[in-house]
Specification:
mainly alpha, two-stranded antiparallel ribbon
Length: about 100
């Protein structure tokens, strides 16, 4: 999982929303895999944590919308997140 810098728009930490969405995707994938393996207890646990992470991201995004974050500010924050992820990936490739 990548870590992203604290990128804010009108005081809302959009990088945390992105991080929560990454966590939701990961937990949903684990839940899916667990279903395929027949481990329903673990699948259920990860489905719940995926939903919690998605809810947290939705809460942050709603707060950004309520705070009047402009499309330009959100786009700039998104660009900064993608740049940080690309820089981290490049660093990982160099270390390998």
């Amino acid at each position: 999982m990548t870590s992203v810098p604290d990128i804010t728009a009108n005081g809302i930490d959009l990088s945390e929303a992105a991080r929560q969405l990454e966590l939701a995707v990961h937990d949903a994938q684990v839940a899916y895999d667990c279903v395929g393996l027949g481990n329903l207890d673990r699948a259920h646990e990860h489905a719940i944590t995926a939903r919690i992470a998605a809810d947290a991201a939705e809460h942050l995004l709603r707060a950004a919308l309520d705070a009047g974050v402009t499309a330009e500010a959100a786009d700039a924050a998104g660009d900064a997140i993608l740049t940080a992820e690309a820089a981290e990936a490049a660093g990982d490739a160099v270390r390998e």
